[in-house]
Amino acid sequence: MTVHNLYLFDRNGVCLHYSEWHRKKQAGIPKEEYKLMYGMLFSIRSFVSKMSPLDMKDGFLAFQTSRYKLHYYETPTGIKVVMNTDLGVGPIRDVLHHIYSALYVELVVKNPLCPLGQTVQSELFRSRLDSYVRSLPFFSARAG
Amino acid sequence: MAIFSVYVVNKAGGLIYQLDSYAPRAEAEKTFSYPLDLLLKLHDERVLVAFGQRDGIRVGHAVLAINGMDVNGRYTADGKEVLEYLGNPANYPVSIRFGRPRLTSNEKLMLASMFHSLFAIGSQLSPEQGSSGIEMLETDTFKLHCYQTLTGIKFVVLADPRQAGIDSLLRKIYEIYSDFALKNPFYSLEMPIRACRGKATVGWCSGTWTLFTQPSWTLGPSWCGCFVGGRRQPCWPHKSLQPPRRLCSNCSAWQWC
């Protein structure tokens, strides 16, 4: 059980933050990958709202393939937290919510020196996020 | 209903089969007086709620019926425009039924193709080598399971999130597809699958494979009454098909098969 990588997007599709822990396959070009990821999530959200037989409350939660599972959390302000993990990981909506509320809001939004709407430069945010993810019960230091 | 719908998508992304089996979606019928406290807008030939939420009516719900009569897209049953009708104070009080709009066939086609692309992108964005496409997509109201065969056909099932055993259901649907669609000599690959009712089937009659038309619902051999070589020959339906009562083209008589 492990965490592969984490993306943070804002409502306009700007990738605010990306960090990776175990990643075996690199994407082509990083900037294109962020746009592709955002576009895919936008399309999945619209797809799910049309397909759903009942009114949805939380919307799209996660998807999985044969090798990884992508977990998704979106706030009402349009901030999207996306985490790719191993298949053995269950629902981690509260983890993603903690990343938003206790890390992003506290360290970036409330920081007057951090401009919103662009990639987060704050080293404090990066290091706190890294230590939080490493402390998660489903994170194992060795890959695979 | 535990299984909401089944979609079969060909390798080009086109929808070739679709089945919906969920119970009617939640609908709310209320009586309103002028002015309407919901904001309605026209979208895609339907009148939807753009703003305003009360008593089970949500944003995105469509106007399904006015005063008990079903609306026809943006027009009422009498042919008047819905928005115009509801804008006229003389028509009030009016009883309007709202509910989640059902998908039209066109929308289902588009959604199937959209899923086909999302499936491929899911495998491209993988942080691990050798990932397949999206096999399971989870939301709070349904779970979508997808099985892609080696030939590129995708079987997609939408089910209740707590429903188990969908993997074996997908394999079973694949089995049924290969038995009833692929083994049907009149089925063209990658084309939409038509229901077998009322279609031509192939059977063995009087020592030759012939076309049976107008099938109904029984199973077994039938006696044509054809005399070939001085003996009555039985009509056998092809074993991969469900044979009904049919019109044998050899002897033009109704057979109970």
Automatic annotation (TrEMBL), chain B:
Gene Ontology cellular component annotations, sorted alphabetically: endoplasmic reticulum; Golgi apparatus; TRAPP complex
Subcellular location: Endoplasmic reticulum; Golgi apparatus, cis-Golgi network; Golgi apparatus
CDD domains the record matches: TRAPPC4_synbindin
Principal subcellular localisation of the protein: endoplasmic reticulum
SMART domains associated with the record: Sybindin
The entry's keywords: Endoplasmic reticulum, ER-Golgi transport, Golgi apparatus, Transport
GO biological process: endoplasmic reticulum to Golgi vesicle-mediated transport
Pfam families registered for this protein in UniProt: Sybindin
InterPro entries in the cross-refs: Longin-like_dom_sf, TRAPPC
Superkingdom of the organism of origin: Eukaryota
Binding partners and assembly: Component of the multisubunit TRAPP (transport protein particle) complex, which includes at least TRAPPC2, TRAPPC2L, TRAPPC3, TRAPPC3L, TRAPPC4, TRAPPC5, TRAPPC8, TRAPPC9, TRAPPC10, TRAPPC11 and TRAPPC12. Interacts with SDC2. Part of the multisubunit transport protein particle (TRAPP) complex.
Matching PANTHER family: TRAFFICKING PROTEIN PARTICLE COMPLEX SUBUNIT, TRAFFICKING PROTEIN PARTICLE COMPLEX SUBUNIT 4
Protein name (database record): Trafficking protein particle complex subunit
Organism expressing this protein natively: Homo sapiens (Human)
Gene name, Swiss-Prot/TrEMBL: TRAPPC4
